[in-house]
Specification:
Elements lengths: L2 E12 L2 E12 L3 E5 L6 H8 L7 E6 L2 E2 L5 H6 L2 E4 L11 H7 L11 H4 L2 H20 L15 H14 L4 E5 L7 H16 L3 E5 L3 H7 L2 E6 L2 E6 L1 H6 L1 H8 L6
Parallel strand pairs: 3-8, 3-9, 6-7, 7-8
Antiparallel strand pairs: 1-2, 1-4, 4-5, 9-10
This protein binds adenosine-5'-triphosphate and magnesium ion (MG).
Magnesium ion binds next to helix 1.
Length: 256
């Protein structure tokens, strides 16, 4: 398997605290890769550095063979990295379709003033994007809600809309921060099924989750962080048995 993403020695400090301490992470093309660890372990900070949302204090990031260390989030997005956030970033007053279309912008080939005059080219492109976006909505079983306002949807459906928006950019790497957070059990099962399906369809996915049971059943590989350091990096069955992982979680029973 070839590496799609390679982070080496990534480090982030907040004052005296080293939140992420020389972390190495390799995500292979076509894999579903889990990132777990107790609260405050540095998972979000690590992913923020990788996706250009946060500054990097040390180390390098290589994506599709190119050094992308320190590139801004929008430049990484145009190179094919898409992410969802731990807290919702949806436009509550807009429809599901419009929210997902917003994730599409890196492919939209027309610019002002075409948009302003609404030329035939615009409507053709617009139609094509809408067709692609409808296909994504169908894939996530969201098509029935396409024209509903996001604020009307139950929480589980909204998390799927966020996933759909990240997919709309046709990313090479999809990075998800706690997609199952706050979901009832039945919705967690739906999400697990969706992630498995995406992986089968060739997506590469890096997912942060506290729901370890979910990750254990769907991931090819898992990296475990504790206090800013990698304490395990292996297949789920091996990670599950790791004494260091068990100790990290037993010491913090609130996360187990
Ligand atoms: N903006 C910030 N300013 C200061 N410290 C921060 C900031 N962001 C994160 N930290 C600290 O960095 C450490 C790692 O935080 P991070 O949010 O990356 O953890 P996490 O593994 O994502 O946790 P959770 O599971 O709760 O989401 C924590 O000690 C946190 O308090
Ligand atoms: Mg986090």
């Amino acid at each position: 398997m070839t590496a799609l993403l390679e982070a080496r020695g990534l480090t982030r400090r907040w004052g005296g605290l080293t939140a992420v301490d020389e972390v190495d992470l390799t995500v292979h093309r076509g894999s579903l890769h889990g990132l777990i660890g107790p609260n405050g372990a540095g998972k979000t900070t690590l992913v923020n550095m990788i996706t250009g949302v946060d500054r990097i204090d040390g180390g390098r990031v290589v994506f599709q063979g190119a050094d992308v260390t320190g590139l801004a989030a929008h430049r990484l997005a145009s190179r094919g990295m898409a992410r969802s956030f731990q807290t919702s970033q949806l436009f509550e007053d807009e429809s599901v379709l419009d929210n997902v279309m917003a994730g599409r912008h890196r492919h939209i080939g027309y610019r002002f003033p075409h948009t302003f005059f609404y030329t035939p080219k615009v409507s053709r492109e617009e139609r094509r994007h809408r067709t692609d976006v409808h296909a994504i909505l169908r894939e996530l079983d969201l098509a029935v809600d396409a024209h509903r306002q996001v604020s009307e949807l139950p929480y589980g459906r909204r998390r799927l809309v966020e996933l759909a928006r990240a997919m709309a950019s046709e990313p090479t790497l999809l990075v998800l921060d706690e997609p199952a957070a706050g979901l009832p059990g039945s919705d967690v099962d739906v999400l697990g099924e969706v992630l498995r399906r995406l992986r089968r369809n060739g997506y590469t996915i890096l997912v942060i989750e506290h729901n370890i049971g979910l990750l254990m059943t769907i991931c090819d590989r898992m990296t475990v962080l504790s206090e800013g350091r990698v304490i395990a990096d292996d297949e789920p069955a091996v990670v599950r048995e790791s004494p260091r992982v068990i100790e990290a979680y037993l010491g913090r029973t609130d996360d187990a």
